[in-house]
Amino acid sequence: FNIVTEDIRYLYGVAQGTTFSAVQASRNTNQSIADSAAEVVNFTTENLDVGGWFGGSGTTITVPAGAIPDGATTVGVLLVGSMTWDTNGTGKRRIRILKNGSSIGQWKLSAISGDTTDLQLTEITTVAAADTLQLEAYQTSGGSLAISAARSVALPCSMHEAQRCASCSFMTPAAQAASGSEIVHMRMKDQVASDG
Predict the structure, then answer these.
(1) Could you tell me which residues come within 8 angstroms of residue 185 by beta carbon, excluding any fewer than 6 positions away?
(2) Helices within the chain (DSSP H only)
(3) Which of 24, 31, 139, 162 is 20 to 30 A (C-alpha) from 177?
(4) Please, are residues 124 and 78 in contact by the beta-carbon 8 Å criterion?
(5) How far apart (Å, rounded) are the C-alpha atoms in residues 113 and 62?
(6) 144 vs 21, 25, 88, CA distance in Å?
(7) Nearest to 45 by CA among 146, 192, 135, 150
(8) SS3 for 65?
(9) How far apart are CA 154 and CA 189, in angstroms?
């Protein structure tokens, strides 16, 4: 048994089993959301895109084929979305993450009086090549209300070895191998600041 040789073989295996892919987008202007009407966030700036997830502007992030590990048909992702609504204490505010146009999770709360209302949502799911991801906003203030200039919308992915991912406790190595999915972390964030 040669420790140095085994270490080199292990590190080579890690490198061969690693996938990195990421996207981060943002808004730099307000987006007005009509009362009682669900609308997807329109991203205006591409801050980071490793792998071709996003076209630079628009409402939709599309999973590229290159994000799916060799030999797999899906990849596990962690999605986190957040947004800040302008100050208005009337009604409800809701955030949803959509995959292929359907909600995979939502968070709703009553508006905060005298301050902005912040929403954050975290979801774990699997995606395949060409699946789409969107962030949806909804409010019932009685009139149009803005989510203000966006700071960031991000889907950065971490590098993981296919069979070694201590931080991916939601899918064990055995379950991961059985599903044919390599775990990749993603973070989607629409964090917007109020203009007052």
Answers:
(1) 77, 78, 156, 157, 158, 160, 167, 168
(2) 3-16, 173-179
(3) 24
(4) yes
(5) 37
(6) 36, 24, 11
(7) 150
(8) helix
(9) 5
Entry pTM: 0.72
State the Cα–Cα distance between residues 47 and 11, nearest whole angstrom: 31
Q: Pick from 95, 108, 77: which is nearest to 134 by CA?
A: 95
- Report how far residue 187's alpha carbon sits from residue 175's, in angstroms, rounded to the nearest whole number: 22
Neighbours of 56 (CB within 10 A): 10
**Confidence at 17, pLDDT banded by 50, 70, 90:** low
In angstroms, rounded to a whole number, what is the distance separating the alpha carbons of residues 168 and 171? 6
Which residues face 94 on adjacent strands?
108, 138
Tokens of 73: 């048909």
Among candidates 135, 116, 144, 146, which has minimal Cα distance to 43? 135
The whole-number pLDDT of residue 50 equals: 83
Tens digit of each residue's pLDDT (9 = 90 or more) over 121-156? 888 888 899 999 999 999 999 999 999 755 444 443
Per the structure block, which two tokens stand in for 39? 């609308």
Measured CA to CA, the distance from residue 165 to residue 3 in angstroms comes to 22
3-state secondary structure of 16: helix
- Residue 68 is classified by DSSP as S
List the beta bridge partners of residue 120. Answer: 82
